[in-house]
Amino acid sequence: MIDELRDQLAGFAGLFTDTAAGSFAAAYDGATPVAAGELASGFFVATGSGLAVNPALLDGTATVKQSGIAAASTAMTDATRGFAATGISLTGEDYSGIAGAITAALARDVGTVTAKATLSEATRGEAQTRFAAAVGVNMDEELANLQVLQNAYAASARVMQVVNQLYDDLFGIMR
User: Fold this and answer.
1) Mind giving me the DSSP string for 54-88?
2) pTM (2 decimals)?
3) Do residues 57 and 42 touch, judged by C-beta distance below 8 A?
4) Helix or strand or coil: residue 35?
5) Which ranges in the chain belong to alpha helices (H)?
């Protein structure tokens, strides 16, 4: 599931750096004019772990190309995009629809994992209950058995006391 999500997010990040016609990168990079100090191309850059805003924009050495804003916005809302990644295959979507589909897939997976965790917890609880019933100690039953044993011991002790007394009396008569 994690690998599936990573694949989906990598594919989504690729939509921002892909330079195919109609993409965000193609729209931003192809927009003219470029004023002094504006970032001409490469709004987003691919990193080892995904996607990042161009460092020149972050550190202030360049600004967003004003002519690229409308074109990039249009590219992002163009609902003719296709997207395929592990567990998702879409056509006729814009960037928002693709992000929504990834989020919905994640929510579905979270629901599945939650249901499995609940089932596992219930199964574990039932197994513990059955184990305790099979090998556990029933305190009420043990207390009842202890009382029976205590009464039997008391009766046996009384019998032994009577027998001792009987022997003492017999020996007393013989003397």
Assistant:
1) -HHHHTTSSB--HHHHHHHHHHHH-TTEEEEETTE
2) 0.65
3) no
4) coil
5) 2-17, 24-30, 55-58, 66-77, 95-135, 139-174
Q: Which of 32, 12, 7 is nearest to 76 (CA)?
A: 12
Q: What is the CA 157 to chain-centroid distance, rounded?
A: 65
Q: At what angle do helices 95-135 and 66-77 cross, to 10 degrees?
A: 60
- The alpha carbon torsion through 73, 77, 82, 85 (nearest 10 deg) reads 80
SS3 of residue 136 by DSSP = coil
d(CA 146, CA 109): 55
Residues sharing a CB contact under 8 Å with residue 41, sequence separation 6 or more, in sequence order: 25, 28, 29
For residue 109, give the 3-state DSSP assignment.
helix
pLDDT at 133: 79
Backbone angles phi, psi at 137, to 5 degrees: -105, 125
Q: Which two three-digit tokens encode residue 123?
A: 């199964």
pLDDT digits 0-9 by tens, 68-123: 999 999 999 999 989 999 989 999 999 999 999 999 999 998 999 999 999 999 99
